[in-house]
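Checklist before submission:
- one chain only
- standard amino acids only
- sequence pasted in full

Submission:
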Amino acid sequence: MLFALLCTDKPDSLQIRLDTRPDHLAFLESLGDALKFAGPFLGEDGKPCGSLVMVEVADKDAALVIADKDPYAKAGLFSAVEARPWVWAVKNPEA
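Returned file contents:
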């Protein structure tokens, strides 16, 4: 099942994001086929303020394990992380 990891950055934490980005990207690559897509949310100033990570895993607990292992989470970047089940209904390349 697909899960959207919706991650919100803490205020004034851009430097944590920038410093941790290489490890975060390497972590995402290590997920292999479980990772469907990912990218940052942008604030009105055009700077990253959160993340969307779409993973295919067995259940919500597995999605939250991935979220907890993310270097951004370990660095304390996020004020909130939510895992929500999602159905890719339109323009799904695997459908």
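Reviewer check: The two ends are 14 Å apart (CA to CA).
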